[in-house]
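User: Structure please.
Assistant: Input sequence and predicted structure:
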Amino acid sequence: MRPVASGRPYHVVACRGRVPSALGDFEGESEFTLSTGTQTMVVSGVGAAHGDWVRFHEKDGASDGKDVRVWHITQEADGGFTAATGPSAVFTLGWPLDRSCVPPA
């Protein structure tokens, strides 16, 4: 598992080996590829829709599938997708980037 910055949105370049076209592509058991700027990183786990975003639990394949991180995936206005991890991704930075986010009750 490589380190990532908490709360920083990363561009999703692929989901299940192809360019994603809808948030539903991230639901269920899946994997997606992020661009970290200089490299790519594959994230494997399980996603579930929450309205206009997906909560994705990254799993560690080396330790019986334990949760590693939780990612929040949204579709941006240009049709692309971004993913960020950590509570600051949702609340501190006003995630998703182009609309306000209401904390879950």
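The longest strand covers residues 40-49.
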